[in-house]
């Protein structure tokens, strides 16, 4: 059987140039730049010609979308590396934990990247389907979901989880959720979404998790020495 053809040199060079630009954009954001950094500064940081970011992405908006896609790809890669145990419900909650921990590694970068997605561009992004694919990966074969609800879950749940995660992250970006509360906020939201379609034997676990998250949040909200 013939081996698949390797990517040509031109395609490799193209991908290398794109990675140089995206790596440079992350460094600028890490140093405190906003999404308004200049394309000239970006090209200088990447060590490429001034036209290179335009040639490969077309606009700054497209660069920010590519950075968001890169974040989602990292989340998926970490999920595959970890291979969380359990059924679909366990895997969804594990994906939420993995995704939040990744965001918290570079909050100054990822807040700008995700926040920039609210800016309209000349073309629609592919971030939403990529985000939905992340939850399709977590759901797997839908084990743990009630048989009569699996068709609904397959068709609707990935999109709903994508909305839930994006909503929690938006509140985090706005400062209404602190770093410590982000994970619990999504975990609770996901448990509530899963509660109505899970197998009956899993519902007590989900309810207990919701209660534990609520108790942990209440404890964090108490002032020192409060009761």
Would you give an account of this structure?
The protein is mainly alpha-helical and 227 residues long. It folds into two domains: 8-58, Arc Repressor Mutant, subunit A; 71-221. 71% of the residues lie in helices and 0% in strands. It contains ten helices and no strands. Helix 1 (9-30) packs across helix 2, helix 5 (88-105) packs antiparallel against helix 9 (179-195) and helix 9 packs antiparallel against helix 10 (200-221). The longest helix is centred in the C-terminal third of the chain and has 24 residues, at 150-173. It is globular, with a radius of gyration of 20 Å. 29% of the residues are buried.
Please supply descriptive tags for the structure shown above:
71% helix; mainly alpha; 0% strand; 227 residues; globular; 10 helices
What is shown here, in short?
With 227 residues, this protein is an all-alpha fold. It has helices at 9-30, 39-46, 52-57, 60-82, 88-105, 107-115, 127-139, 150-173, 179-195, 200-221. The protein starts with 8 loop residues before the first helix and ends in a 6-residue tail after the last helix.
């Amino acid at each position: 059987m013939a081996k698949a053809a390797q990517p040509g040199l031109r395609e490799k060079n193209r991908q290398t140039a794109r990675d140089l630009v995206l790596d440079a954009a992350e460094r600028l954001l890490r140093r405190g730049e906003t999404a308004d950094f200049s394309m000239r500064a970006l090209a200088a940081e990447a060590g490429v010609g001034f036209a290179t970011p335009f040639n490969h992405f077309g606009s700054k908006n497209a660069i920010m979308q590519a950075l968001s896609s890169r974040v989602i790809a990292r989340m998926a890669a970490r999920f595959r590396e970890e291979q969380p145990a359990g059924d679909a419900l366990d895997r969804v909650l594990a994906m939420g934990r993995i995704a939040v921990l990744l965001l918290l590694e570079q909050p100054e970068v990822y807040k700008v990247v995700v926040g920039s997605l609210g800016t309209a561009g000349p073309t629609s992004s592919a971030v939403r389907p990529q985000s939905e694919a992340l939850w399709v990966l977590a759901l797997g074969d839908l084990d743990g979901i009630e048989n009569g609800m699996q068709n609904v879950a397959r068709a609707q749940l990935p999109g709903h989880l994508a909305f839930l995660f994006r909503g929690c992250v938006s509140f985090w970006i706005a400062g209404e959720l602190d770093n410590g509360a982000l994970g619990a906020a999504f975990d609770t939201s996901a448990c509530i979404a899963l509660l109505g379609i899970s197998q009956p034997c899993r519902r007590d676990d989900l309810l207990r998790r919701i209660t534990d998250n609520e108790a942990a949040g209440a404890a964090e909200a108490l002032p020192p020495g409060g009761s």
